[in-house]
Amino acid sequence: xxxxxxxxxxxxxxxxxxxxxxxxxxxxxxxxxxxxxxxxxxxxxxxxxxxxxxxxxxxxxxxxxxxxxxxxxxxxxxxxxxxxxxxxxxxxxxxxxxxxxxxxxxxxxxxxxxxxxxxxxxxxxxxxxxxxxxxxxxxxxxxxxxxxxxxxxxxxxxxxxxxxxxxx
Length: 168
What we know:
The protein is an alpha+beta fold.
């Protein structure tokens, strides 16, 4: 019978460490493949609802069933729901695009036409909330206070995109 040696214990620990490392690499590889193939759960939803809580009653949100102007402008392209917000904190205003093709391609940052219906919906929802709660929509300075220079033009584009995404 052989006696265990320190070298054997080290080689066993190294083998266990290698197996753990292989398992971790495999897990990361599978996660990367899932991201690349767009099989995550967020992409499974065919028509995603965009929801905001408005601190007002449903009658104030849509008086007489008429949506606020930014959402009314989208017309029949959207489906809208009003429901009480949890904790009696106003009304949940939920909107989604009727047709998924309006959402544009998933693999690009912006559709080839330059028109992104999802960002337009998000902007309209944000503006509707502001109109209902405060009576006005605050926007960045128009005309812009920056000059049309090499650095000023990209800043203008970022500010323009921030309206749809909600952050700069």
